[in-house]
Amino acid sequence: MGARRLDIAVTVLLILALAAAALSGLLADYLGIPRSIYHRLSGYALAALASWHIVLRRRQMWARLKAVAGRRGRPAVSAQSGTGRAATPAWLQMPSRRSFLFSGAAAVAGFFAGRWLAPGRLPPELEGADFGLVYHQWSKPSLWSIIRRPFQWGGQPPLYKEYPSAQRVFLPRDFKYRGLSVEEAINRRRSIRDYSGKPLTLEQLSLLLHSAYGITESSGPLRASPSAGALYPLEVYAVVNSVAGLASGVYHYQPRDHSLDLLKEGEFRAALLAYTGGQDMVLQASVVLVITAIFQRTRWKYQDRSYRYVLLDAGHLGENLYLAATSLGVGPCGIGAFLDDEVNRLVGVDGQQESAVYLVSIGTLP
Description:
Blueprint: H1 2-31, H2 37-56, H3 58-69, H4 97-116, H5 131-138, H6 143-148, E1 167-170, H7 182-188, H8 202-213, E2 234-240, E3 249-254, E4 259-265, H9 269-275, H10 281-284, E5 287-294, H11 296-302, H12 306-328, E6 330-335, H13 340-347, E7 354-364
Antiparallel strand pairs: 1-4, 2-3, 2-5, 3-4, 5-7, 6-7
Helix pairs in contact: 1-2, 7-12, 8-12, 11-12
């Protein structure tokens, strides 16, 4: 009786592991991420449970294989059958044709239902549309669009975001480090997902933030990375896991005085792992930078094309981070696949006026 209960428990766990592997695989495919710790762990569990299941069922499986291969004699005629045919044990009976057809139909129906059922109602003209293509076509300039567009897209918001009540940490400004040339950094630049877990120094983090979005002109607001119209719509938040001299937590980078404002203290590795679909480099990363955009900083001037320019700005900033990290000898990895609402809540933005557009993990090399 105990062996049968164990067999049932392993079978149930095997089904659950199979479902977890399928769902985590679909999530990884949907997000377009190269690896997910959820999918890997469910795969390990599936392999272990399948092996255990085979061990528990080894006798039945061996008997079935021998029966199929014809190495076992025909069973004796059953007295109860009344037909003169050999009675086949229940565990040797193959599933019926109807069972195969029903299972196949259910799988096909589930696939197409998931593809076709929309989570909410859309305007009829946008049903089934590629929103990126719609926006790209809609935001193309033309004489008619210039004439008919509204003249007022709101005012220009402040260039800097302030957290007056936050604890402020001033970063080192004396950048004595001289690393690789630009040409060599470009040649060596790679997305690196495996880190040692050792902390970054405060000087390294300072140089990374300055190289990404720091002010580089003493008499004006010009930054390290280019921005459409010098409007600088981006904000940088640092989710610190392991940086020498800094408590773990969420910080906001203030470029005006090159400092960090502590927004919330604590460990957020597990949250980032969940919010990035199981991309495990965030666990060992020294810091994960969350790049957000305040869209109105660009929208008031560039109107329809503002979203294009905001994303271009994020790309410029990301490449600066990659090259600076490569020159410093640490590993960067850009992350475009993440759960927007959850990441927005983590750094404390509303997701409408300001929203996360890009993440970059940075860690020390093994």
